[in-house]
Amino acid sequence: MLVLVDNTPPSISTPSISPEEPIEGVEIIIDVKVSDLVSGVERVILWYRVGAGKWTHVDMAFDGVFWIATIPKQGAYTQVKYYIEAYDRAGNMAKTDVYSFTVKAGVEEIAPVNYVLLYTSLAASIALSVCAILIALKYKRAKSA
Alpha-carbon distance 58 to 70, whole Å? Predict the structure, then answer.
């Protein structure tokens, strides 16, 4: 019978967020690499809180490389704090520092320029100006004759 002794907690890398600068109304994806070479990773949990609210936890899913979880859409100027806990199969636990970010206001979408309308209006303005000049010159010639 083989007995495995594991007294070391999992290793957690620095988490990444996407988008790197979260904006209002967009979900925030947190991903992190977690490893445990002795007994293996059992569970990874994302803890987060919005403003001064209570801590909420989300089990992170493993995609074969990263552990991933999503923080729901937040409003502009909201501060979000988060950290990650990881457990190995032997029951050892590791925890990251607390990280934070502030959600930025979204950029208002600018209406696309209708270049056909713009250039048509510009051409019409130039044509009217040329006509006005020609009429003025013809009127001046007729008056001087």
Answer: 8
